[in-house]
Design brief:
heterodimer, A: alpha+beta, Cytochrome Bc1 Complex, Chain A, domain 1, 2 domains, five-stranded mixed β-sheet, globular, B: alpha+beta, 11 strands
């Protein structure tokens, strides 16, 4: 394999993604790229906030943040001194289903990333002073979150859409639930929920696959634990039965943030790509799609007004977000609802669909030019069982989506009369 | 990177910078204009940023609604930014689609409509953008500190402009600003990516050479007279969190001190990068102020900001304070750290470490062709592109003695502005 810079002729696929499963269950994927002198490591474990006791919401997040605060081998300062001295970075975070990790270094420092990952994952000691310090930082972040109209609206929107489900609860918890978590909770959570089985790791950069396999054997083959606990069962996710409109007062603010929408498809749903292209037409393409055109370009009501389709393992959300002057929230809501009615009652135009298909296919090289972009793409292939050839099949999958499928996906998920509509801003009156 | 850059100058004054990168079939095309808040007069703050918005509102060839779709249709990414010294527009597109990006930028350099109705519609959009910023305590604090840090220099104004000016600026003001500053003699075109330079130059010449250039004199604001005493600014607003912002004078990017200051910033608050598009960052947990403030649990975050500017600007240190502590305690600790740096010269090893961090960030950013296009034109706005090609080399030449000089020259109490955001506990 050449180590000279060369053009990347093909998108990643089965020919150049090397996949290996260790005896302890860890799945490893590697793709070499010698165009850059760097290397990226990215991955996840099958543990997240779905395991949090409700009264200790934020435990998975807190535990993930605590992993690098001290290990059996190194102090917090020693860990970060090694990383920062090498110009490297590494960190953890938790979501509902997974705890993710990621790092980046110059290629010669890949062993440093592996040793950091291994000791923080397998041998964290959660020093009491560090755990307390972390708690204080997290509590301040939550206080700041409580003042963000965007965050306040988004959290309330999720709770309306996913009542009694982890998707409806913020992974970083609430002030009272973080306060309820002790150091022992972190120790126990790590012991009971961190397993090699279910861990997936991707390495992309200026390294040969064999180097990565050797490092993985060295640092992870000894990590043996029995099978992890089964995933908890959650309440069924059901569409809203009627429209819900809510305003949350955040005093002293100049602008209101609006989040409105419905449930969306899960990532593995057959209609996912049709919904995704539809979402792009609705609120992303060009300057934020149809909704950007209506709310920003024509009415001048907002600096931003766009849509997002968030597709997870069990379900998803299809939402519109906008930052609006408090006097204009009602008008903007009406404009957005009107666009949603059109979107669910008429076929998108042939031109719109073709434009968006071209955009999706044309932007692939952009999303795959950096090691980080490639690593994230490969990680998604694994997480959602898409197959190592998915990126190569992707253009034909996109081309195959029809206008009828877009409309069907829209109607399946969006009922403009049963939206969750949440605004957060300076007063209680939505004008 | 240095040996790969080619420079060309057209007769109308347009400078063209090209760098071939053949790792992916992508081209990033940038147009940079020497206009930003530094060029703005009282009563017209925010006009450069608003003009940038109007550049997305169409021309006879690319009417509004066509323009925004044209690049996206080809899978491209595009955007624009307005800053203190510059305004820039870029498109990163599949290599075979670059002709459209060039045609679009050459066209809107001179042919934008500035339709009166669109001006009014965009007025409320820009005001909305400002209102969104006003929701953030740190914007309010920064606006107050920045304003207090300068007497006359336009750097005292936020790029987005004051609410009063955004309400009074007219279509004629905007169009006049556009016609004055958007012309080839006041612009740099920078292109990075998968092309042959000779052919790219032909394309750019065909698109831009026929446009008329008229050179613009730099505003000539220069360096402000040094402050003689510390200034305290109190800002009150909603929330539960206290913030402290310290603004010290900083050298312009054209001064040698800038490079020593970059290393000093790295030692105090952690490494920063010039990457605008990906490349990530390096944490600051071993920086001096993190250790002093966060390990003593006086603060929950600390950041430093040194910007590469044409005229001397500011070095800002921003601290999020722990609920149990106050701004005075943080201030004393920051002063103690600066005192310690002055008394005990930093080691060469510490300086070398910061230089290595900068090199690593440079490597990470190089993976992205859009970054490479950005870098090409960026330094032309306050110096010339060799500033960037020499960047890591100049950082590597910094000595402990240079750090000491910069500390004595700039990080003094009597020259700084101290801003404190006092939360009212969540009430309006």
């Amino acid at each position: 394999m050449s180590t000279q810079p060369s053009r990347i002729h093909s998108v990643p696929g089965p020919d150049d993604i090397f996949r290996k499963t260790l005896p302890n269950g860890i799945v490893l994927l590697v793709r070499s790229n010698f165009n850059s002198a760097s290397v990226v490591i990215s991955g996840y474990l099958a543990v997240g906030s779905q395991f949090d006791p409700p009264e200790k919401l934020g435990l998975a997040h807190y535990t993930s943040r605590g992993l690098m605060r001290g290990t059996a081998r190194s102090s917090f300062q020693e860990i970060f001194d090694r990383l920062e001295s090498a110009g490297a970075s590494f960190g953890y975070g938790a979501s509902v289903h997974t705890t993710s990790f990621g790092g980046r270094a110059l290629a010669e420092d890949l062993p440093l990333l592996f040793s950091t990952l291994a000791e923080s994952l397998i041998e964290p000691v959660f020093p009491a002073d560090q755990v307390n310090r972390l708690k204080s930082q997290m509590l301040t972040s939550l206080a700041i979150r409580g003042q963000s109209t965007q965050d306040v609206a988004a959290i309330e929107f999720d709770s309306l859409l996913f009542p009694n489900h982890p998707y409806g609860r913020p992974e970083d918890g609430y002030i009272e639930t973080i306060n309820a978590i002790s150091r022992n909770d972190l120790v126990n959570f790590h012991r009971d929920h961190y397993f090699p089985n279910g861990m997936t790791m991707v390495v992309v950069g200026a390294v040969h696959p064999q180097q990565v396999f050797d490092l993985t054997d060295r640092y992870f083959s000894h990590w043996q634990k029995p099978a992890p606990p089964a995933e908890p069962q959650h309440a069924a996710i059901k569409p809203l039965e009627r429209a819900v409109v809510k305003h949350i007062v955040v005093p002293g603010k100049s602008q209101s943030d609006l989040v409105m929408g419905t449930l969306g498809p899960k990532r593995k749903a057959p209609e996912y790509l049709a919904a995704s292209l539809g979402n792009s037409i609705l609120g992303q393409f060009g300057l934020m799609g149809r909704i950007g055109d209506s709310v920003r370009e024509k009415a001048g009501l907002a600096y931003y007004a766009s849509t997002s389709l968030n597709a997870w393992k069990e379900s998803g959300s299809w939402e519109v977000s906008a930052g609006i002057n408090p006097d204009n929230v009602k008008r903007a809501t009406a404009l957005i609802t009107s666009e949603l009615r059109r979107f669910t009652s008429e076929l998108v135009s042939e031109e719109e669909l073709t434009d968006n298909q071209n955009n999706y296919i044309g932007r692939m090289p952009l999303s795959l030019e950096s090691n980080g972009g490639v690593a994230n793409s490969i990680l998604n292939l694994e997480r959602f069982d898409l197959g190592l050839d998915y990126l190569q099949r992707y253009p034909s999958l996109i081309r195959a989506v029809t206008r009828e499928q877009v409309l069907e996906a829209a109607r399946l998920h969006i009922d403009p009369d049963k939206l969750a509509i949440v605004s957060a801003g300076p007063d209680g009156k939505v004008k | 990177m240095k040996e790969n850059i080619q420079e060309f100058n057209l007769e109308n004054g347009l400078k063209i910078l090209l760098t071939e990168v053949h790792t992916a079939p992508i081209i990033s095309h940038w147009v940079w204009y020497r206009v930003g808040s530094r060029y703005e007069q009282p009563g017209f703050t925010g006009i450069s940023h608003w003009v940038e918005h109007m550049q997305f509102k169409g021309t006879p060839t690319f009417p509004a609604g066509v323009l925004d779709k044209a690049i996206s249709r080809d899978g491209g990414m595009w955007n624009a930014f307005t800053h203190l010294d510059w305004t820039t527009f870029f498109e990163t597109v599949p290599a075979e689609k670059v002709d459209l990006a060039i045609a679009l930028e050459a066209d809107r350099m001179v042919n934008s409509y500035f339709d009166p109705e669109e001006v009014e519609s965009e007025r409320t959009v820009v005001i909305s953008e400002r209102e969104g910023s006003e929701n953030e305590p740190l914007f309010k604090l920064d606006e107050a500190v920045q304003s207090a840090a300068f007497n006359k220099h336009p750097y005292k104004n936020e790029v987005i402009g004051s609410m009063a000016d955004l309400q009074s600026i007219t279509r004629a003001d905007l169009y006049g600003h556009y016609r004055k500053y958007y012309n080839p003699a006041n612009a740099v075109v920078a292109v990075a990516g998968d092309f042959e330079s000779e052919k790219m130059l032909e394309k750019l010449t065909a698109a831009y050479a026929h446009l008329t250039g008229s050179p613009i004199a730099a505003p000539g604001n220069g360096r402000e007279v040094a402050r003689q005493s510390e200034r305290l600014i109190d800002v009150h607003g909603p929330g539960e969190t206290t913030y402290l912002q310290l603004a010290y004078p900083a050298p312009s990017a054209r001064e040698e001190d800038f490079f020593a200051f970059t290393i000093l910033d790295s030692l105090l608050t952690g490494p920063s990068s010039l990457n605008m598009f990906g490349g990530g960052s390096i944490s600051n947990k071993t920086s001096r102020l993190y250790r002093r403030l966060l390990e003593k649990e006086i603060a929950v975050s600390v950041n430093g900001s040194l910007q590469a500017t044409f005229d001397p600007y500011l070095y800002n240190i921003t601290v999020t304070i722990s609920p149990e502590h106050n701004a005075q305690t943080v201030l004393e600790q920051v002063d103690a750290e600066i005192e310690m740096l002055l008394r005990n010269q930093v080691s060469q090893a510490e300086v070398d470490r910061a230089a290595k961090q900068a090199r690593a960030l440079f490597v990470y950013g190089s993976e992205n062709i859009t970054n490479q296009g950005f870098w090409l034109g960026y330094s032309e706005m306050f110096d010339e592109y060799s500033w960037f090609t020499m960047y890591t080399e100049k950082l590597a030449r910094v000595t402990p003695s240079d750090i000491h000089t910069v500390l004595e020259r700039y990080l003094t109490r009597d020259q700084r502005v101290v801003g404190i955001y006092h939360p009212d506990g969540g009430q309006a």
